Amino acid sequence: MLSPKRNFSSDHAPIRECFELFDVKPLNYITGPLGSGKTRLAKRLAESLPDATYLGLGRLDNPAAFEALLEKDAALKARVEETMTWLIGDGARRCDALAALIAAFKSDDQKILVIDMVEEELDQATQEALMAYLRLTRLERPPLFLMTRSSSILDLGEVGDDESIIFCPANHSPPMFVAPYPGGPGREAVATCLAPPDVRARTAGMIAVRPCAA
User: Fold this and answer.
1) What is the model's pLDDT at position 157?
2) CB neighbours of 113 closer than 8 A, spacing ≥ 6?
């Protein structure tokens, strides 16, 4: 049993809440509304799981450094290119964000990966191609934890028995496992947190304004 702990503080003393992870599936999703503690949970999972690493949004920051890394490792570059070719043939768009993910999957240093917002900078077709690939190859690598709010990454109609959904509630109560089937506890709450990539792109820069009274 693995028990990553989420640490909270109050005005008086720290409060510790225990999230027990009994079974790690090949594919595991972390989702929830904005500000619900997804990133905190993801980082604690990466710290607590044996032989795991956290892949944050920093993977998108320096494409030139990433290219230099591939140039130094010809074998990794070949594996990345082979997988990219497969994904492009399945409808994906070639981009640095996708290449960075594939490089992490194909690294010689195979670890459990906990990935922050896996859909970042990937269009819908690329997300769908990526998920088809991850399902097809799920038993060929260590488990993945994918933080997401995209319905193209976490398609509730496609989640199988060897996948799990971890939901972080908006009220910061402990995370819960959610069954994907209709009527399952928590399923509707998960569904409200997910949206297609075009909807998320449209609302990414939205600002709420309260009009002044006339």
Assistant:
1) 93
2) 52, 53, 55, 104, 105, 142, 144, 145
What per-residue confidence (pLDDT) applies to 100?
93
Q: Is the pTM of this model over 0.70?
A: yes
Sequence-distant contacts of 17-25: CB under 8 A, at least 24 apart: 17/174, 18/174, 19/174, 19/175, 21/45, 21/49, 23/164, 24/49, 24/112, 24/143, 25/143, 25/162, 25/163, 25/164
Provide the 10 A C-beta neighbour count for residue 65: 8
> Chain centroid to CA 55: how far?
9
Q: In the 8-state DSSP scheme, what is residue 59? A: G
**Residue 58 burial (CB count, 10 A):** 10
DSSP string spanning 80-103? HHHHHHHHHHTTPPP-HHHHHHHH
114-164 pLDDT, tens digit each: 999 999 999 999 999 999 999 999 999 999 999 999 999 999 999 999 999
Measured CA to CA, the distance from residue 121 to residue 197 in angstroms comes to 10
pLDDT tens, residue by residue, 183-203: 889 999 999 999 998 776 655
Determine the Cα–Cα distance for residues 199 and 214; give it in Å rounded to an integer: 32
Q: Distance between CA atoms of 206 and 214, rounded to whole angstroms? A: 24
CATH annotation of 5-203: 3.40.50
Q: State the CB neighbour count (10 A cutoff) for residue 76.
A: 16
Ordered by start, the domain boundaries in the chain are 5-203
What value, to the nearest 5°, has the Cα angle with vertex 56 and ends 19 and 4? 15
Strands 27-31 and 163-167: parallel
